[in-house]
Amino acid sequence: MKFAKIAYWIVTILMCALFAFSAQMYFFNTEMVRGFFSSMGFATWIVIPLAIAKVLGIVAVLTDMVKILREWAYAGFFFDVILASTAHIMAGHGPQWMSIGGIFLVLGSRFLYQYRYVD
Questions:
Q1: Contact 99/77 with Cβ under 8 angstroms?
Q2: At 113, is the secondary structure helix, strand, or coil?
Q3: What is the pLDDT, as a whole number, of residue 30?
Q4: Is the pLDDT of residue 14 over 70?
Q5: Contact present, 47 and 33 (Cβ < 8 Å)
């Protein structure tokens, strides 16, 4: 069980780092991100609310204060990765295997969650 607990924390920290990097890019390089969004045909007004949602999702996953918020955070992360992957694939951008890695991080963290407090 100790291996599963360590695996949970590694996968969860990697997942949170992925979304934290994304959120900070949305906050500090807003115009560049808006350019990406508009080039893929998405509304640019969603950039900052999406960054805020990512930060709140990270807090919900790491603090685990309210179970329903944690579940919604995982769902939001899953849909964010799926939709972002699809958008990048349709736009013909870089290596798609990186998107698949994000999907596995979200799913891995969610399914390893049951081992979070195992001794």
A1: no
A2: helix
A3: 92
A4: yes
A5: yes
Distances (CA, A) of 43 to 7, 34, 63, 66: 37, 8, 31, 31
Residue 74 near residue 110, CB atoms below 8 Å: yes
Instruction: Please compute the mean of the pLDDT values over residues 3-24 and round it to a whole number.
Output: 87
Q: Has residue 46 got a pLDDT over 60? A: yes
Distance CA 110, CA 19 (A): 15
Give the residue from 90, 117, 86, 110 showing the smallest Cα distance to 99: 86
Report the C-alpha gap between 10 and 42 in whole angstroms: 33
Best CA proximity match to 48, nearest among 60, 63, 31, 68? 31
Residues 9 and 113: their CA atoms lie apart, in Å, by: 9
Question: What was the pLDDT predicted at 26?
Answer: 94
Domain ranges of the chain: 2-115
